[in-house]
Design goal:
The complex is a heterodimer of chains A (279) and B (346). Chain A is mainly α. Chain A has 12 helices and no strands. Chain B has a domain at 111-345: MetI-like fold (Orthogonal Bundle), CATH 1.10.3720.10. Classes of the chains: A mainly alpha (279), B mainly alpha (346). Chain A binds chain B through residues 117-118, 120-123, 125-127, 129-131, 134, 207, 211, 214-215, 218-219, 221, 234, 238, 241-242, 245, 248, 252, 255-256, 259-260, 263-264, 267, 278-279, and chain B through 36-37, 39-40, 43-44, 47-48, 51-52, 160-161, 163-166, 168-169, 172-173, 175-176, 179-180, 231, 234, 237-238, 287-288, 291-292, 302-303, 306, 314, 317-318, 321-322, 325-326.
Chain lengths: 279, 346
Amino acid sequence: MRSKVVLARLVRNRQARYGSIALLLLVLLAYVGPFFGQYEWTDKDFMAFLSPPSADHWWGTTTIGQDMYAITLRGMQKSIIIGLLTALIATTLAAIVGAFAGYFGGWVDRVLMWGVDLLLVLPSFLIIAIVSPRLKNASWLWFVVLLAVFAWMITSRVVRSMTLSLREREYVQAARYMGIPQWKIIFRHVVPNLSSLLIIDATLNVSGAVIGEAALSFFGFGIQPPDVSLGTLIAEGARNATGYPWLFVFPSGMLVALVLSINLIGDGLRDALDPGSNT
Amino acid sequence: MLGVAFVKGVNRSPVQCDRRVMGKYLLRRLAMNAVLVAIAASLAYMLAATTMNPRASYEGRQPPVPEAVIDATLDAYNLNDKTPVFERYVTWASGVVTGDFGKTWNGASVNDEMGRRIGVSLRLLLIGTILGFAIGVILGAYSAVKQYKIQDRIIGVSSFVVMAVPVFVLATLLAIATYNLNRGLGFTLIEYTGEYNPRLSGWDQFLNRLNHLILPTISLSVGSIAFYSRIQRNMMLDVLGQDFVRTAMAKGLRRRTALFKHALRTALIPSATYFAFALGTVFVGAIFTEKIFAWHGMGAWLVDAINQNDVNSVAAVSLFTAACILLAAFMSDLLVAALDPRVRVS
C-alpha cells in the first residue's frame, strides 16, 4: 500500500516529526491558550498602559491597555485560518486550471495559459493593496480570496505539464474509450495522480499565505482594525519596537515559529512523497 | 531544436543560421512581452483611476478651496474624477507613448520623480543583490562538497531558519539591535535610517553613504544567501555525481580545478537564472527594506503613492515593474543559453 509506505516514511522523517509537533503545539496555544489567560482580547486594562510582561499580564500590554497574550493568540488564530483557506483555494485553482489546460490542449490550453501569464505580470501587491482597504466593511474572507487569486499560477503550469504526460497513460485512454465524461476523467484519474505534488504545494502555500498576510498588513493593506492578525500586531509593534520590545517580539516570534514548523512539514512531506526529488 | 551558438568549435555556417532563427524567436518574444506590459499597465491605471480619489487631498484643506479651483487643478493634472475614466485613460496613454508619465497628485513631474527614485533603489539594492548571490552560491557549493559533515548541517539548518523570518521582522530586529548598540556606545556607530547625511561632503559623505548601506544590505542579502545556498547545494550534488566531472578528474585535473571549471559552471545555471531575475526586479524588490530604513526608492514610492491617492505615480510604478519582470525573464533565458552548452530553444 502506497499510503502506508508514505506514512511510515513521514513518521521516520525527523523534520516532519519536529515540524508536526511544533505546529500542533502552536495551534493548541492559539485555540486553547486563551482559556487560561486572565483577559479577553477585547478587554482594555485602563490601569496598565504599555506595561512590560508581568505576573498579571504575561506578555505585557499595548498602548491602549490590551493584554498582549490574549491579542497575540487571537491574531494567531486569524493568521492560521487565513493561511489554511488561502492554500486550499490556491491549490484547488492550480489543480483545476492546470489539469483542464493540459488535458484538453488546443484553444482551452492557450486561453488558460494566457490568463496565467497575465496574472503573473499583473502587479499583485498593487491590486491587493488598492482593493483590500476598500473591503473594510466586507468580510475578511474577501481578503483570503484576493491572496489566493495571486498564488496559484506557477503551480498550475507544473500541473499542466504533468497532465500532458498523464493524458497518454493507458488507464486514461481506457476510461476515455469507455465513454466516461471528460471532467470525470480529470477528477478521477488525472488529479489524484498529481496528489503528491498538490499536497506539498498546499503545505508550502500555507506558510506563504501567512507571510503574505503579515506583509500586506504591515502597511495597513491587509486585515483591517478592529480585527487583528499577526501582521497587524507586528506592524504596530515595529513602530514602538525600540522602547517596548514585547509589542514586537511576541507576535513576530509566533509568526516565525508558525512558518518554520509548516516549512519543516512541507520539506518532510516532499522527502516522503517524492524520494527522487532533492529540491 | 537548435544547438545554440555559444558552443566553441562548432562549424561556422550552422551557427550563423541558428543565430538568425534564434534572433527571430527572441524578437517575437519581446513583442509578446511588450503587449503583456501594455495590458498590465492599462489595467493598473484603470484600477487606480476608478478606485482612488485625489480630490480628497484638496477638499479637506483649511481654508477650504473653491470647487472650481479644485476642478481646474485636477484637470491640469488629468486626475479629475468628473472626466470619464476612459477619456482620462486615453490622455494618460497617449502621454506614456511619447514617454511622458504625467503629473503626481500635487503637480510634480512623474518622470523626474521616477528618475530620482530609480537612482536611489539602484544604489541601495545593487550591492545587496550581488553579495547575496555570490555568498549564497559559495556557501551552497561548499556545503555540497562537505555533504553530511558538520559544516553542511550548520549551513542547512541556518538557511532553513533564515527563510522562515520575513524581511520586515529581520529589518526591524536589525534596527532595534543597532539602536541599542549606538545608545550603549554613546555615539552613532552604524546609521539605521536614511540614505546619507546631506551636511557632509566629499570623502566624508562617501563614507557616510557606505555606513547607511550596512543595515539595508544585510537585511536584503541574508534572505537571498539562504535561498541561493539551498539551490546551489542541490544542483552541485546532482552534478558532482556525473560522468563529466569524474572524467575531468580522471584526465588529471586537480580536484579543485575540476570542481570549479566543470562542476560549478554547470551547477550555476539555476542560481544564475534566479539571479538574472533578481537583477531585473532589483528596483521594486525592496518595499520593506526601503520603508523600514527610510530610503525613498521605487518600492517606497508605490506604498506612498497608494496612500496619497496618486493615480499617475501608481500607474507609472506598475508599468515599470511589469517591464522589469518581463525583461528579467528574458535576461535569464539568455543567461541560461550562455552558460549551458546543452540548451535548446524551441
